[in-house]
Amino acid sequence: MADREAGRSARDLADDHLLRELESVHRTRHETLLHGSDDALATHTRRMQELEDEYLRRHPERSQAAGRTRSGARARVGEEG
């Protein structure tokens, strides 16, 4: 994949730029899945994975909303853990 297709390496992005890139890739995911070519979807998937991996590398102890955990989801629907 050429640099022009992929953009700058996620490791080279400043934190604020990494977040903007993540927001953009997530915003465009649905349309790419529904209407993109196989190559476009593969490129999009690789870029999304690269950006997400870099975010997780930088923020291994990120905060997690209780409702986004398995036990939190069970509590929302009234199931026991």
Structural topology:
Layout: H1 3-6, H2 15-35, H3 38-58, H4 70-77
Provide a short characterization of the protein structure.
This protein has helices spanning 3-6, 15-35, 38-58, 70-77.
Average pLDDT taken over every residue: 87
Gap from first CA to last CA: 45 Å
Strand content: under 5%
Our count of helices gives 4
Q: Main sheet?
A: none
Q: Stretches where pLDDT falls below 50 for ≥5 residues?
A: none
What is the number of strand segments? 0
Apparent shape: flat
SS-based class:
mainly alpha
Would you list the SSEs in sequence order as H and E? HHHH
Rounded Rg: 16 Å
Amount of helix? 55-70%
Descriptive report:
This protein is mostly helical and 81 residues long. 67% of the residues lie in helices and 0% in strands. It is built from 4 helices and no strands. The protein has helices spanning 3-6, 15-35, 38-58, 70-77. The longest helix has 21 residues, at 15-35. It is flat. The model has no long low-confidence stretch (mean pLDDT 87).
Essential attributes:
81 residues, mainly alpha
